[in-house]
């Protein structure tokens, strides 16, 4: 029987091979150190869980308005105003089953077949495939020689007649870079001149370090009228499993997204919506506690990596990943020992050190691996030790 041609155009997960290796080792009874997590390792705070339980007890377990309960949408507009300086009405908010759905809704709402979407690379794994699902064509822009940020020049160079959207992800997964106010202002100059949607994924906005600030690109001039802002509770409140994200944008695009959502998932979980409302109304200290721990872990891993001058990485100002360049040891070994790409390197770490990482090819950067510091101190210590040993051995193989 026939399967849609779209399926052959979407890539299966490039990380599967390494994950399978890890499962195989686990099945053999070996202790595996997993540094692949894309989610905080903390439990969802108690007061948020209590709101979910209360929703169930109150029988709040039925369909809600397609775009989300009015009180949550209103609360989101307040958050966007006070924290991000952006004015929206509740009608301009659509709550979905995770930010991932919000992004796909947005792409489906704005793309026609063959439309181009400018995507700075390295990128979050799902963007290119979601663009393709929506009929678009990802235009990857390598940022690795520009401090992992798209510059106004690079952006301008890649705009064509067919460009329909630009995806901005700050703080960025996998690199942890954050665009400064100045950098955004410079990008805004270009974006103002063109009829292009900006999908601004701000899901990691609260996980930022040092004296970094998170700025929404919609605050520059009238860019709010061209932006579809994506955010949610997954990372900030450690609520990944609750599946709750949202988009904010101009009314016509939100209406278009609502039409689409109404025919595939309808509203996000009623229970999760109540829990998200509690999260937004809850004490900021809870998020600060988690943020601080992430920062301590970031500093810990950084100090370890700095012990080896040949280990270069992107300095994470936000999110919870280290994106590490391991290409120095490519092609060093002999025969079976020879490693020439990120999947082989990650497989080597899994086999020799029971350390599971994500190969950079999954994010469009084959010289890198990604390790997550959403892991316990013990796992981080063992994991980074494994990585350093692995690198040391391959460095020596060169001599
Ligand atoms: C950059 C980025 N955007 C969006 C998402 C999806 O978030 P959610 O769990 O709310 O669907 C993730 C999750 O890994 C992410 O890293």
Mean pLDDT comes to: 95
Overall outline? globular
Proportion of helical residues: 40-55%
CATH architecture of the largest domain: 3-Layer(aba) Sandwich
CATH fold category name of the largest domain = Aspartate Aminotransferase, domain 2
Number of helical segments with 4 or more residues: 13
**Major beta sheet, specifics?**
7 strands, mixed
Give the distinct bound molecules: pyridoxal-5'-phosphate
Strand content: 5-15%
Cα separation of the termini = 55 Å
The first-level CATH class of the largest domain is given as Alpha Beta
Strand and helix layout:
Blueprint: H1 5-9, H2 16-27, E1 33-34, H3 46-57, H4 70-84, E2 93-96, H5 99-110, E3 116-121, H6 126-133, E4 137-142, H7 152-157, E5 163-169, H8 181-193, E6 197-201, E7 227-232, E8 245-248, H9 251-262, H10 270-281, H11 284-306, E9 312-314, E10 321-325, H12 342-353, E11 355-356, E12 358-359, E13 368-372, H13 377-398
Parallel strand pairs: 1-11, 3-4, 3-5, 5-6, 6-7
Antiparallel strand pairs: 2-8, 7-8, 9-10, 10-13, 12-13
The protein binds pyridoxal-5'-phosphate.
Pyridoxal-5'-phosphate binds near residues 38, 99, 124, 169 and 234.
